[in-house]
Structure formats: structure tokens, C-alpha cells
Design goal:
DUF4124 domain-containing protein, 3 helices, elongated, 2 domains, 5 strands, three-stranded antiparallel sheet, alpha+beta, DUF4124
Length: about 140
């Protein structure tokens, strides 16, 4: 197990020497139990050997900034449009909840449910919060 680790470590170090890098010193020693140790800090009071290895530099990242066409809609414009749409929908929901007594709610499967008075109050509170959120963001 220890020999496999040491072999893997040496292969790793050998591969690192092919990169552009600065040199660092690794200290190695074997303890009384036969376990090999590797460290960048010099051990005190024991025999050790050193290896100089090259620390790899991080890869260079090219910054490819896409050119934006002047006529292309910006993300901010799209978000503004979504906010305006949400404001209008929220205001319409609030108006319907306030003006009508019997309101049917249709779920994604097409099932209709008549809102109870308690459900209607909850939906009105939610619509008011959405109006506050979306419509005040426009101002």
C-alpha cells in the first residue's frame, strides 16, 4: 500500500515537472513504523531527503466576451418586460378576487375548484403581495 502511494506520488511529481512552474522543495522520511512521509515543511531531529519539484501554474483562461449587437434586447429589458407582465397579471387577479363572489380555480389537469371564502382571502393576500412586489419594482 505504501509503495503504491509512493509510486503514485512520484509519477505525479514527474508529470508536474513538464509544466511551467516555480520550484518547491519536498522533504521525505520514513518513520519507525516504516511509513513514508512527505511534507513541504522541514522535519526537525530526523534524517530526511529532499526532492525539488515544480509547482504547476494555473491554466491561462482566455476571456471570450461575446459582442452584443446594438439592436439585441438586453437581459435587463427582458426582466423589465417580465416584471411589467407580472404586475398586470397580479393587478388583474386582485381585481377579479375583489369583484366576484364565486371564483373557480382551474388546476394544471383542468380540474375546477370553487374557492371557499377562506381560500379567497388567502388568494387576495397573495395577489396584494405580488402587486406590491412587481408593481412597485416598476416605479
Amino acid at each position: 500500500m505504501i509503495k503504491q502511494f509512493a509510486l503514485g506520488f512520484l509519477i505525479f511529481i514527474g508529470g508536474m515537472q513538464t509544466c511551467d512552474a516555480k520550484t518547491i522543495t519536498i522533504y521525505t522520511w520514513q518513520d519507525a513504523n516504516g511509513i513514508m512521509h512527505y511534507s513541504q515543511m522541514m522535519p526537525e531531529g530526523i534524517d530526511f531527503t529532499t526532492m525539488d519539484i515544480r509547482e504547476p501554474t494555473p491554466p491561462k483562461v482566455e476571456k471570450n466576451i461575446p459582442q452584443v449587437k446594438e439592436n439585441a434586447p438586453s437581459l435587463l429589458t427582458d426582466l423589465d418586460k417580465q416584471t411589467q407582465d407580472n404586475c398586470k397579471k397580479s393587478q388583474e387577479n386582485l381585481r377579479v378576487l375583489a369583484e366576484f363572489d364565486n371564483i373557480k380555480l382551474i388546476d394544471e389537469q383542468g380540474n375546477e375548484t370553487l374557492l371557499t371564502e377562506a381560500d379567497k382571502v388567502l388568494h387576495q393576500q397573495l395577489a396584494e403581495k405580488k402587486v406590491k412586489l412587481y408593481c412597485q419594482a416598476i416605479l
